Each structure stands twice: as structure tokens, then as C-alpha cells.
């Protein structure tokens, strides 16, 4: 049985600590996989404020410290799909070894889950060529579709739970048990039971504890999370009003930004100015198609 509060591992240039040395081996295996151009996607799930951010930061710090670099939470963690693509580009251009997708309520948007799964398949080539480990942070794993697991992209699920005081607990599931876990969650949901009950009914291959983040890191990560959540809420508010910026308009209409500016001279679209940025009503896309 694991000794309580036995945190024997610490690493140069990082505040990372966890209680099970086998967890270190697991992360090292993922780094070895990507160095050999094999896929490595780790899924982390758990309740709000349960320790997912802490675990993400710990893994990021450890992996980047192996290359004598620091984990840049702001530039390596993408909140929502569009933000993730920007972070993926930054990581590629700066030679980073880990990039994180955090759903950040993104799946509450209609069709976001299917778009994300298609995205994962598309960016796999980028991840493989650039030898990057990818972490997906979700509220609950059942939001993920089966295809990324079936293709061998997802290596394991880490469920964070039981956060109290200075530590949280983690339990790990391999690909085979993720399938059973998701099946059981759906079964419980259909019978009126809480899907979360499935975690304790599914076999794990590893358990550990993680320490709370260093206070300086925790303050920084919380501040970045708050800023990103505010941005997501602002984007949702704009979407409700049917407003999009010129980059989105260009992406969805197929026109370049310079071509759009030329067309604006004759179309004279209604402009909604918020702060220093101009927004346009989505109906403009139909006018551009005429």
C-alpha cells in the first residue's frame, strides 16, 4: 500500500512532485513515443476545481524540464478550439514538446464535440512530425468520441478526484478500460444514475497523489484561466448576437481579408464596434455569396 504523503520525487527547474514513481515512467514513455514519431495523447478529466489545472501544469513542467526549458502555461495551454490551434502553432514554432487542449466549456457549444474529434485527426500529423505530447482536459471523458481511442491516439485517461488540502488523488485507465468506462457511464446515465459512479467500478492500472502547485505557479495559472474564461464568455455573447470578426468572416466566406475590405466599399455592411475591434453580422456571409 502506498505510504501517505510519500512524495519522494522532485525535479530540477520544477516544483513537480507526485507520490508514485511509476507515474514518472509513464510520462517518460510518452516522451519516448513522440521522439519516435508515435502518437501520444493523454486525457485528463475531473470535477471543476478538482486539480486538473495543477496536474496539467505539473506534467508540462516535467516534460519541458527534460529539455532544459520551462513550461509556458499561457502559450502552451489552449482554452477552446480556436485558442488551441493558436497554441499548437506557437509550440511548433518554438520547438515545445507539449501542448494542451482545455475544453473550457467549449463543448457546451452545439457541434463542438464532433468538430474537436475531426480536429484531433487533422492535427495528428502536425503533432507526430513535431514530436509533441498532447493533453486533452475535459470535465468528463464521455464527451470524447471512440475514434481517437480506436486509432491508438489516446494512451491513457487520468481522472483527478478527492482534492483536499495540499493534494489530490489520480487514477489511471488504459485504452481498453476507457471503452468500458464510457460504456458504463452511458449505462448509468440511461438508468438515472450518476455517470461519475463508473470510475470506481472500472479497473485502474495506476493510482497516485499529486501535490498542490507552488503558490506562485497557482496564482499565475489561475489568472490565465480567468482571462481565458472571460474571453470565452465574451465570444459566446458575440455569437448569441450573431456577430463575428473579420478573421472569422474570411474563414467562413472563403475570401481573403483584403478582398473583404474591397467588397465592403460596395456592400457597406453594418459595423458594430466593441472596444477597438469591428464586428459584422453573420448574415453578411449570405450577401457575400450572392
Q: What report would you give on this structure?
A:
The protein has 11 helices and 10 strands. Helix 5 links the parallel strand 3 and strand 4. It has helices at 21-35, 52-65, 73-76, 81-93, 112-129, 147-150, 175-190, 215-240, 246-253, 257-267, 284-289, and strands spanning 41-46, 77-79, 98-102, 133-138, 154-164, 167-174, 206-211, 243-244, 271-274, 277-281. It has 290 residues and is of the alpha/beta class. It starts with 20 loop residues before the first helix and ends with a helix. The chain folds into 2 domains: 21-217, Rossmann fold; 241-289. It has a 7-stranded mixed β-sheet, with helices on both faces. A 3-stranded antiparallel β-sheet has the order 8-10-9.
Q: Which of globular, elongated, flat, extended, rod-shaped describes the shape? A: globular
Strand residue content = 15-25%
How far apart are the termini?
Answer: 70 Å
The count of DSSP E runs of length 2 or more, i.e. the number of strands, is 10
What topology, given as strand order, has the largest sheet?
A: 2-3-4-1-5-6-7
Structure summary:
With 290 residues, the chain is an alpha/beta fold. The chain has helices at 21-35, 52-65, 73-76, 81-93, 112-129, 147-150, 175-190, 215-240, 246-253, 257-267, 284-289, and strands at residues 41-46, 77-79, 98-102, 133-138, 154-164, 167-174, 206-211, 243-244, 271-274, 277-281.
Using brief descriptors, characterize the structure shown:
single chain; 290 residues; alpha/beta; Rossmann fold; seven-stranded mixed sheet; three-stranded antiparallel sheet; 11 helices; 10 strands; globular
Amino acid at each position: 500500500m502506498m505510504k501517505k504523503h510519500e512524495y519522494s520525487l522532485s525535479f530540477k527547474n520544477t516544483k513537480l512532485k507526485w507520490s508514485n514513481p511509476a507515474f514518472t515512467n509513464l510520462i517518460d514513455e510518452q516522451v519516448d513515443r513522440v521522439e519516435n514519431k508515435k502518437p501520444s495523447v493523454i486525457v485528463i478529466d475531473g470535477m471543476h476545481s478538482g486539480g486538473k489545472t495543477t496536474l496539467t501544469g505539473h506534467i508540462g513542467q516535467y516534460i519541458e524540464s527534460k529539455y532544459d526549458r520551462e513550461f509556458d502555461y499561457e502559450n502552451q495551454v489552449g482554452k477552446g478550439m480556436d485558442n488551441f490551434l493558436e497554441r499548437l502553432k506557437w509550440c511548433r514554432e518554438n520547438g515545445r514538446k507539449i501542448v494542451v487542449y482545455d475544453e473550457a466549456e467549449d463543448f457546451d457549444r452545439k457541434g463542438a464535440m464532433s468538430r474537436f474529434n475531426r480536429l484531433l485527426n487533422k492535427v495528428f500529423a502536425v503533432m507526430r512530425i513535431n514530436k509533441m505530447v498532447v493533453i486533452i482536459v475535459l470535465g468528463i471523458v464521455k464527451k470524447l468520441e471512440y475514434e481517437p481511442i480506436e486509432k491508438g491516439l489516446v494512451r491513457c485517461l487520468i481522472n483527478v478526484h478527492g482534492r483536499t488540502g495540499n493534494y489530490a488523488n489520480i487514477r489511471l485507465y488504459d485504452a481498453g478500460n476507457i471503452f468500458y468506462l464510457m460504456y458504463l457511464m452511458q449505462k448509468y446515465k440511461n438508468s438515472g444514475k450518476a455517470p461519475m459512479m463508473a470510475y470506481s467500478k472500472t479497473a485502474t492500472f495506476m493510482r497516485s497523489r499529486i501535490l498542490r502547485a507552488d503558490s506562485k505557479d497557482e496564482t499565475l495559472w489561475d489568472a490565465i484561466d480567468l482571462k481565458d474564461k472571460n474571453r470565452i464568455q465574451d465570444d459566446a455573447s458575440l455569437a448569441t448576437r450573431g456577430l463575428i470578426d473579420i478573421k472569422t468572416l474570411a474563414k467562413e466566406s472563403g475570401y481573403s481579408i483584403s478582398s473583404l475590405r474591397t467588397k465592403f466599399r460596395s456592400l457597406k455592411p453594418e459595423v458594430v464596434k466593441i472596444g477597438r475591434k469591428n464586428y459584422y453580422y453573420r448574415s453578411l456571409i449570405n450577401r457575400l455569396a450572392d
